[in-house]
Amino acid sequence: MKYPDLFTRLISKTAEPESSTGCWLAEGTCDPKGYVMITKRVPGKPFPVKHRGHREIEQIVRGQYNEFDLDDDPLGPILMVERPALDRDEETIDHLCYVRRCWNPDHFNTETRARNTALMQQRKQKP
What's this model's pTM, rounded to 2 decimal places? Predict the structure, then answer.
């Protein structure tokens, strides 16, 4: 199925929001770490490339893709925060809800890779 834009495509692959958590649970194939993957064409690449869906949602929210009208969001309002572009070499997305299938941008926090790894280790040690 052809979608008019990436945001519509991502939302179409999302289950109804969890009422108790607010998580947007992505449907689809996961990578070995449990993150939902999407395939998309990238300018300059001859073949589609796989990307983690939550990173694509974050890029949309950060304004990296300007063709989306997020005021009429089918899953509810998104907390739009002015955020600079992700530095893919230095920054990663921490899921505040601890659910890797979630791609609700309100559940994301940007961390350095070292800090995100430390937070994951802390979470594993909790009883």
Answer: 0.69
Return d(Cα 112, Cα 69) in angstroms, integer: 29
Q: What is the mean pLDDT of residues 9-31?
A: 85
SS3 per-residue string spanning the chain: CCCCCHHHHHHHCECCCCCCCCCCEECCCECCCCCEEEEECCCCCCCCEEEEHHHHHHHHHCCCCCCCCHHHCCCCCCCCCCCCCCCCCCEEEEECCCCCCECCHHHEEEEEHHHHHHHHHHHHHCC
What are the residues whose beta carbons fall under 8 Å from the beta carbon of 87, sequence distance 6 or more? none
Q: CA 14 to CA 101: how far, in whole Å? A: 10
Query: Do the Cβ atoms of 78 and 105 come closer than 8 Å?
Result: yes
pLDDT bucket at 63, cuts 50 / 70 / 90: low
Nearest-angstrom CA–CA distance, 97 and 100: 8
Q: Does domain 6-125 have CATH number 3.40.1260?
A: no
Which neighbouring-strand residues pair with 49?
40
